[in-house]
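just leaving the lab so this will be short. what follows is a protein written twice so to speak, once as letters and once as structure tokens for the fold. can you read through it and tell me how you think this chain folds. thanks a lot i owe you, the record is right below.

___
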Amino acid sequence: MKIKFIQVSILTLLLTFLCSHTQYGQVANYPSLSESYAMFQGDPGKWDADKVHTLSVVEVNKDGYKYWGYYGLCYYGGDPSFRKCGIVRSNDLMHWDKFAGNPIINGDCRWPTVVYTNSVFYMFYAEYNSDNDSRIVMVSSKDGINFSNKVEVVAREKGKQNQNPFIYLDKKDKNFYLVYYSGVERGTDTTKYHWDIKIKKSKSIQKIAAAKPKVLLTSTYTLAAPSIAFYNDKYYLLVEAAKEGKWNDQWVTLGYAGNKPDGKYKEVANDEPPVLHNNDACAFQYVFDNELYVFYSHCLDLPKWNWELRMVKAIK
């Protein structure tokens, strides 16, 4: 009887270990993705020529279009008047029509990201001063075109970058999450360089400015441009990355998986090569009709900093 008890105990411990390992020890894969589709480019000679960089999409079913997209340009430093925001609209997420009144924001608007809730559009984006220090602001609109009521949600800090915002409304816990990059990447003392991915959480979007940020990831090499999506019972975090001597010295997009939007994330198992890996960055991921879409920027000419917008979707 004693021997049987020991055998049962060992079996119980083994089963417990295996279940625990399966639930907590394994790292998820990022979903397999389709071939990439080119979305749209800037018009030659116009304000967005060769510089279309990010696309934030909301489902609104308004003015004859199911989806509204807000796109920003790649301009970083320099003249703030170059950093503008435009609208494109679609019914299938493949074919997009540019809004005739573009640009809708005429300056110092980089990385626009939008959420549509209670019939109001809320846009977050980064602004810069002459030293290229950045902050994140929020504006709102009833019609999705004319935005006002600017509020600072992440303050500017001397010598730091607070930028690359992505706003996410979690359908499970009904919280708003603002995830963004915060760090130091300029100056003569490179030992101070660091890249943090931070997140703010709030039940009320109007109170997200007061929410205390939490660090999700930290790095000694470029790690920025985060976005979050919930798909196949898992939260996925995408971030752009660059590191000298790695990934053929190209921009890539890394994937992480976690059990809640502001929880612990582990790099996905299928990370070699990265999720996107051919000078592909600035990914915004969304789930529409139970399908995962990733809109991202592909570099056409790195020295000229020319980009085009592309899309991939998860293969079921």
